[in-house]
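Researcher: Can you fold this with pyridoxal-5'-phosphate in place?
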Amino acid sequence: MSSMPDDLLTYRPEFPILERTNYMISNSLGAMPRAVYDALHAYADVWASRGVRAWQERWWMLALEVGNEIGALMNAPKDSVSLHQNVTTCQAVVASCFDFSGKRNKVVYSDMNFPSVMYFWEAQRQYGAQVCMVKTDDGITVPTERLLDAIDDHTLIVPISHVIFRSSYINDAKAIIEKAHKVGAHVVLDTFQSLGSVPVDIQSFHADFACGGVLKWLCGGPGVAYLYVRPDLGTKLEPKLTGWFAHENSFEFATGPIRYADPPFRFMNGTTHIPAIEAARPGLKIIREAGLEKIRDKSKRQTARLIAFADQHGWRINSPHDPEIRGGTVSIDMPDSQQVSRELLARDILVDWRPKAGVRFAPHFYNTDAEVDAAMAAVVEILNARPVSA
Ligand SMILES: Cc1ncc(COP(=O)(O)O)c(C=O)c1O
């Protein structure tokens, strides 16, 4: 197959690991931008030279500023995004805004959610949550109608992935949110596998909450997750998972119950994770400059290329064929897929393997078509080299 002219490739030199590997794993950990070295050096300089004054001069407001940078990528209004360490914590902050002791105590989710999110909500049974898990029929998609039917007058929360980590299926977020609102429920949309790869317009979705991390498609490294709260809810809700950063006047060091600050600090709790936030910025800047629409167009093209190749070889594809409902990953369960993934890693073709998915290939804006082809050619070579069974 021939390659297309591609100006996104001008960003390749910004990512050192691309010189040494075929990096097909941005659905797990996006490549590190070279500028992170400088960002972390600058962080150390500030700490070393400004000491405690750094809080006032830079660090206190950093979560708000970077929250706004992330928010801008999903069309979130200013100051509606708080930062946390991971998505599981974001779910906990949301859960702590609600009470499961009343009649409206049902949590509806899909078994295609990321497991950490399931574990968290299942554990809320001990506080009175009635948990309803809607199962996939085919291991790829979420049965939208059945999910919508499960969302009823008793439903309090619907935690749902926008893009499924295992198959890259794009959920019908609009329909799910619409149904939830019709019956008075709230949706927590996990945009971890979408933002940075698949467009997210949080206002057009009318999402109540959205959360994700920056370490995959946003190339921001581990340790930073974001939580969007719809502004009209944001001024009303009172998270019980709270702390002094959420106080309207933290430095009053007041005793007794909290008096909540406005969002986004209202949804934070203890001291923020400054080094991780500093490290996240270069990736966000590049993604912003590269442009989310261009990234999506390229992703559709390269994932289609992977699918065409896999189809040609008759390998099982555990991702949607339709690009409109497919995110940035193609999961391919070729024969001996776990062994194939090990051998790809040994050749510095970075992928991963997941049960019920197979080998996940996740090209991003910095990958060439030649890398996509080389990864597929390597699979053929590995499969051809297998001993022939008697
Ligand atoms: C959709 C999705 N949600 C959540 C997570 C991770 O959650 P946490 O940030 O709590 O580790 C992942 C992957 O790591 C994911 O793919």
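Model: Folded with pyridoxal-5'-phosphate in place. The chain has a mean pLDDT of 97.
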